[in-house]
Design a protein that fits this description.
By secondary structure, this protein is an alpha/beta fold. The protein folds into two domains: 199 residues, 2-enoyl-CoA Hydratase, Chain A, domain 1; 47 residues, Lyase 2-enoyl-coa Hydratase, Chain  A, domain 2 (Orthogonal Bundle). Helix content is 51%, strand content 15%. The strands form two sheets. Strands 1-2-3-4-6-9 form a six-stranded mixed beta sheet, sandwiched between helices. Strands 5-7-8 form a three-stranded mixed beta sheet. The chain starts with a strand and ends in a 9-residue tail after the last helix.
């Protein structure tokens, strides 16, 4: 069985982290599989939305601590090995947000440390009731500094700092209230609800969604005036599309649009 399984349904690609015996930890093998698969999907114009889940009883328990301890015991590796690990993990997180397609996390069980970072990094997240989220590294003496980057960009700073310093879990409902996930659904409907959200987005004009995702993250790093100047140009680019013209005319004529992309 592959460590990362991929299934495709129409314009939606579903990825499943398939290492349940390790709670889908972000091992060297998992990070490599995610990086390679995401890089390939970024070039796939038939894929409009990506969903990401974990096999077994958990979404993702973060980094593989056994691998990390083995790295520590390798005298030839040293700090450089850990630096490389966090670079590769950061590359995966950055790849998710630079993907042209929206990426939706389908979360169940637990999402801890870098697993919580993964949820915070995805463009959207749907969680099953009963799911727990945490950045718990502080409980073993390792502050979740890299997960903090994504978490603190999802929820209010004081709430993020509380999670990071106490190591406490929050439940799915609290995660929704804080903005870490978009919605909480019954566990037995999690897959269907995530698929329905993916299908809804996949039904939009793909080119517009790709333009919009890129602009969404670009404008977040700009001051307000620069953000308006940048997004104004993005809208000009969007308006130049043949399919946008068709969509606007179809709306005026009260008919479904005849989109080509």
């Amino acid at each position: 069985m592959a460590i990362l399984e991929m299934t495709q349904r129409d314009a939606v690609t579903h990825l499943t982290m398939n290492s349940p015996e390790r709670l889908n930890a972000l091992s060297d093998e998992m990070l490599a599989a995610l990086q390679d698969t995401l890089d390939r999907l970024a070039e796939d114009e038939t894929c409009r939305v990506i969903t990401l889940s974990g096999a077994g009883k958990a979404f993702c328990a973060g980094h593989d601590l056994r691998q990390m301890q083995a790295m520590r015991q390798n005298e030839d590796a040293g700090a450089a090995a850990f630096a490389d690990l966090f670079r590769r993990c950061s590359d995966v997180m950055l790849r998710i947000q630079s993907m042209p397609q929206p990426v939706i996390a389908q979360v169940h069980g637990i999402a801890t440390a870098a697993g919580c970072q993964l949820v915070a990094t995805c463009d959207m997240a749907v969680a099953g009731a009963g799911t727990r989220f945490g950045v718990n590294g502080v409980n073993i003496g390792l502050f979740c500094s890299t997960p903090m980057v994504a978490l603190s960009r999802n929820i209010a700073p004081k709430k993020a700092f509380e999670m990071l310093t106490t190591g406490d879990f929050i439940d799915a409902e609290r995660a929704e209230a804080l903005g870490l996930v978009n919605r909480v659904v019954a566990p037995d409907t999690l897959e269907a609800e995530t698929a329905a959200l993916a299908d809804q987005i996949a039904g939009k004009l793909g080119t517009a969604v790709r333009i919009g995702k890129r602009a969404f993250y670009e404008q977040l790093s700009l001051d307000r005036a620069a953000a308006y100047a940048y997004t104004g140009q993005v809208m000009v680019e969007n308006l130049a599309l043949r399919d946008t013209d068709e969509g606007m005319q179809a709306f005026i004529e009260k008919r479904p649009p005849d989109w080509q992309n």
